[in-house]
Specification:
By secondary structure, the protein is mainly alpha-helical. The chain has helices spanning 2-24, 31-53, 58-84, 89-116, 122-151, 157-183, 185-209, 221-251.
Length: 253
Amino acid sequence: MSSILIWLGAIVLESVPLVRAVRVGWAKQYKFFFSYLSFVLARDLCLLVLYFWFSKAYAWSYWYSELFSVLLGCGVVWESYRAALQAYPGAARIARSALPLVFILVTARIAVKGSISANWILGPTTLETEVELRMAQVVLLFGLVALFAYYAIPLGRNLKGIVCGYGLFLVTSLTGLMLREGLGPAFQSAWQHIQPGSYLVVVLLWSITLWSYHPVPQDQARLSLDEDYKALLVATKSKLRIVRNLTSRAMRP
């Protein structure tokens, strides 16, 4: 009963920042995040109906929608980079190239494993897929946080709330998924209480930090970050030039 009440509370809190942002008109500033939150809210409402009145359809609906929410979460991570680095064109250019590549490689690896597996089962296989995608998101999100901390890049109230909330959600989800994969059904009963409680903290944080729009502030970190990008670009071009010269020499008769 307590888990149902937490579930209902999470649905209410999910709707608070979403309705507020749409009503005030700043949801377009974080399109991926609010698209993700809209899907999660619709998913929770549908799953709630299935849980009480169509229980046989609940399991497969949960796993298919869970996989789609993980893919939408990749967009949240990408948008966090885009919003934080919008004043740093050099670093943003690297992020725009690197992030999609990481997600494509992870997705391709999962697709290959699924295609060669003779025992594809919706629940367990989706669980393995979710672990891999969540792991990639955690690494990228913590890389972003490390970048912010190193260059003292200000995030602003909204972006800080999105990053901290989604980061907390990823860490708790990944921990739970790995424990479920390792311990099996023995951990499932405990996770049914831990997961809703931790998610309630996440949506409460979003409700507080996303109540009104706060743009990402700009400061002097731009000069340092752009200088490092230029230095990296020069070093990369120099190494490519060396490799090209060595290759041309090796191909000479």
